[in-house]
Amino acid sequence: MIVFLSGPDSYLRSAKEREIVEIYRKKHGSMSDDRFDFGDNSEIENLEEFLANNSMFEVSKLAVVESPFKASATKLAKILKGHLKDDPNTTILVVSDSDPPAAMKFLKEKPSMYQEFPTLTGKALDLFIQKEASRRGLKLGLAVVNEIAKAFEGDSWSIVTELDKLGLMNRKVLDFEKPAPEYFELINVLKYDRDMRHKLTALEIMLSDRKDDPARIFNTLAYRLCDRKEAEVFADYDVSIKSGRLDYEEVLVDLALHS
Fold first, then answer.
1. How far apart are CA 133 and CA 110, in angstroms?
2. Which fold has domain 2-116?
3. Under 8 Å CB-to-CB from 125, ≥6 apart: which residues?
4. How do 90-96 and 61-66 pair as beta strands?
5. What span, in angstroms and rounded, lies between the C-alpha atoms of 139 and 125?
6. Domains in the chain: boundaries
7. How far is the CA of 68 from the CAs of 41, 43, 48, 140, 220, in angstroms?
8. pTM for this predicted structure
9. pLDDT-derived band of residue 177, with 50, 70 and 90 as boundaries?
10. For position 195, what pLDDT does the model report?
11. Largest Cα–Cα distance in the chain?
């Protein structure tokens, strides 16, 4: 059996690839599968040998073929055509970001199993954003969904990265009609939250979104310190700033990472 996954949406394509591999391994284990990347100097003879060899201990086998069209189309087509029949014991998973050359157009035809992953647009993109947000426990307003779709233009990897960042904000309902986090709310995150990710997210909002003055943030954090040790830390930072060794933004990042 041959399964062909193609298209430029590498996030969804990779997710489907992982799903197929996981299903296979749950059923057969991981001793009888191998990966061949022809964009990374894999030899086509290695694939041929893997498919030809039989073992009394491994009845089933899975071959994952990546960057298939960097190999000789004629040679690879000959190998794959020998496995077009419905063989329940051999699965060949072919993964590519582009359509096959003429010699391998059979990958998109029965009995091959073919699924395409085009760049998402329109309603399909909006549904993808909402689904991925829901998986992260987020509820996005329509304006937020539209802004994310516009900003990343169907780049699904960048979209899920942005959603991961939003998931760190401790706000499960996000809408542009709602006010941005207040200055002292974010200061409290920087000063008292123990999670480094929350601190970095708060700092990014203050510096990038709100455009707060880094010197003001530093001086606010330095006000009413808890103990002598904390006062000494801020005093050292203050000396580093005034001597020109560090600027306020560098100090704030260091505080978020280590305090």
1. 35
2. Rossmann fold (3.40.50)
3. 149, 154
4. parallel
5. 16
6. 2-116, 122-174, 183-258
7. 11, 11, 13, 39, 57
8. 0.63
9. very low
10. 84
11. 76
